[in-house]
Amino acid sequence: MILLKKYLLYFLILVYISGTIGFVAYPAFFSPFTPYTLLLTCLVFLLHQPYNNPKFIRAFFLLALAGYLFEIIGVKTGLVFGHYAYGNALGIKVLNVPLIISLNWALLISCGIGVAYHFFKNKYVVLIVASTLVVLIDVLIEQVAFKMNFWKFDEGIAGIQNYVGWFLISFFLCLASYKELIKVTYSSASIILILQVIFFGIIFFFT
């Protein structure tokens, strides 16, 4: 099992490298693979966590559910993140929100806490740092979201409301799941965040 987790992590890194090159060179071809890449990322992440701990698994999927509900409210009302709509690149949608986006919420928050807790042990410092990391990742994704047909804001770009909404929701969800998520493995969490930064950063600069 240890070897499987190790090789899957290496495979994930190769997927991100090839995906980054592919999105720069042939975005139309590689775009449909986005939901599957996120599913693979979550699988690799969970395999490196205490997945045999029911409380941890429950916390992760409750995060996914909560994030999804906030997205539904956001899309329907515009009160959470501003007025926006999802494109088709993220796969199957229910109530105009891609199902895969729920895992993105859980993944980013879990990785944020895993990285923050590695450096800080004060609970509220961890919450603030983790929420800030999540928002910074969102800032980067927002620069390419329209190009990649992820989502589009009515104003063209995300406004301050989006980032305030992300921070407050992230802080609340981090607080609600703090006890279980501090068990996240730093190595896998940091690698996944770094892969996302490199992926979206290169797409931003080269497309």
What does this structure look like?
The structure is a single chain. This protein has 207 residues and is mainly alpha-helical. It has one domain (2-206). Helix content is 72%, strand content 5%. Strands 1-4 form a two-stranded antiparallel sheet. Strands 2-3 form a two-stranded antiparallel ribbon. A hairpin with a 2-residue loop joins strand 2 and strand 3. The chain is globular and about 40 Å long.
Give the key terms.
two-stranded antiparallel ribbon; single chain; two-stranded antiparallel sheet; 207 residues; mainly alpha; globular; 4 strands
Please give the count of helices: 8
The count of DSSP E runs of length 2 or more, i.e. the number of strands, is: 4
Total of domains:
1
Q: What structural category characterises the helix and strand content? A: mainly alpha
Shape: globular
**For the report, how would you describe the main beta sheet?**
2 strands, antiparallel
Unreliable stretches: none
Give the helices and strands, then pairings.
Blueprint: H1 2-25, H2 27-30, H3 34-47, H4 54-77, E1 84-86, E2 93-94, E3 97-98, H5 100-119, H6 123-142, E4 151-153, H7 160-181, H8 186-206
Helix pairs in contact: 1-3, 1-8, 3-5, 4-5, 4-7, 5-6, 5-7, 5-8, 6-7
Short description:
This protein has 207 residues and is mostly helical.
